[in-house]
Amino acid sequence: LYPIFDEEIPEYENRKRDYYFTCPYQAIDTTVYKFPAGFNAENIPKNKLIEFPFAYYNCNYNWDAATRTLTAIATLQIKERVIKAADYKKLVDFKKQVMADMNEKIVIRHDRSPVFSGGIARDRRGPIAAEPSQAGLKATRRVEERAQRVSNGAP
Predict the structure, then answer these.
(1) pTM of this prediction?
(2) Contact 64, 113 (CB under 8 A)
(3) DSSP 96-127
């Protein structure tokens, strides 16, 4: 998934001033991975919901075994522009929970190939890329190309 919560929120024990977002906002990311025949989901993260009075995060996963398609839809909403200094620790906690969910592994395994006997572990944030908005697309292409080589008998 594209990292939809990329705000810098450093940890401070005794923050005395309010934290300001540029504006309230909502970000939605939909990532779809399609796999060729022979691939199955081994580990799909559980759906996640995180709610605070000032922010909301929800991520839903759906594995369609018939089409071998994994769809992940993440929603992030920052409801308030100003986070009071007294709530800053809650904001840090919110960020940690969201990042923990976004960093969970998705494992897709090929049934027949020893090359994939350990499964394909993917960091949901995707590979490091020059343009982060293209990371999911590049990861999808790489997985599909690798899967196609394996299904054709190549390593």
Answers:
(1) 0.68
(2) no
(3) HHHHHHHT-EEEEEESS-GGGTT-EEEETT-S
Best CA proximity match to 5, nearest among 74, 88, 61, 53: 74
Instruction: State how far the Cα of 75 lies from the Cα of 58, in Å rounded to an integer.
Output: 5
Pair 138, 127: CB distance under 8 Å: yes
The encoded tokens of residue 72 equal 């992940």
Per-residue exposure over 117-134, b if at least 16 CB sit within 10 Å of its own CB, e if not? eebbebebbbeeeeeeee
Structure tokens given for 107: 């494992």
Q: What is the DSSP letter of 95?
A: H
- pLDDT by residue (tens digit) across 49-106? 999 999 999 999 999 999 999 999 999 999 999 999 999 999 999 999 999 998 888 8
Question: pLDDT value at position 28?
Answer: 94
Q: Which amino acid is at 80?
A: E
Checking if the pLDDT of 125 tops 50, the result is: no
CB 107 within 8 A of CB 119: yes
Tokens of 15: 């923050």
* E strands in 13-98: 19-20, 25-34, 39-43, 48-52, 55-64, 69-78, 82-83
